[in-house]
Amino acid sequence: MEPVAETGAAPAADATANSLSPVARIAAIFARPASAWSGLESRTQWWIPLLIFVVISASGTALLHKRALVPMMVEAWDRQVTAGNMTQAQMDKMEDFFSGPVGLTISVVQQVILIPIFSLLVALLVWFGAGFVLGTKMRYRHALEVATWSSLVSLPNYVLTFVLVWFRETFRGVHTGFGVLLPEMETPSKLMTGLGVVLDALGPFSIWYLAVGILGTAALSGAPRKPVTWVMVGLYLAVIVFVAAIAAMTTPSA
């Protein structure tokens, strides 16, 4: 009986021994993403990159709240006043509210809530692709590890966006992908808005994020990289088209 017990304990011991530290895993995600997933089969660490992402995003939002977010809201309210849908007094009241500490708190809390929700949805897509389409036994927790750890390569994109917004003092018309090739318009049309979403999603930062996610999905699902790539690219393109359509439909007509 003793030899059997020793044999059963070996895989767990090997998994623990091969597990990367959080710092080493962060470095591996950027430098050698194919080998960044060791130990995540048996160790839960998805909350670490999620926390990092939330802190950076919330901090950037706080810094840009008065400089970019509030002016954008005021601009939209001003159009409502001009159209007769809002009074000047209502606009002034809302501007005072969102310029204050409560408005800042609302902006930051939105990031704290939305980013985990987004991560859960991305994990659901990864789980669907690997578990249902490819038929592997990938657990949702493993898909969540892929979604959160691969998101770290999006941080340079976030930082670049924050810098551009800081200098432009608006989020409108800011692109970090191929959407930058589109002509700037004072009032973008529905078509240009949707096209901007598609082009940005095909930019280098987005493709980097997708590639790291593919490597993570293959590593934690055990599926070959080629079919994982086809499935994940297909899902990614479907999501891009959906998001672009929503963005176009919700864009006010010029």
Strand residue content: under 5%
* Helix coverage percent: over 70%
How many strands, which pairing sense, and closed or not: the largest β-sheet?
Answer: none
Radius of gyration (CA) equals: 22 Å
Order of helices and strands: HHHHHHHHHH
Report the span from N to C terminus.
77 Å
By helix and strand content, what is the structural category?
mainly alpha
Low-confidence stretches: 1-17
Count of discrete alpha- or pi-helical segments spanning 4 or more residues:
10
Count all strands and give the number: 0
Query: Overall pLDDT, averaged?
Result: 89
Note the overall shape. Answer: globular
Structure description:
With 254 residues, the protein is mainly alpha-helical. It has ten helices and no strands. It has helices at residues 2-18, 22-31, 47-82, 88-99, 101-133, 140-150, 155-168, 190-201, 204-221, 225-249. The longest helix is centred in the N-terminal third of the chain and has 36 residues, at 47-82. It is globular. The N and C termini lie far apart (77 Å).
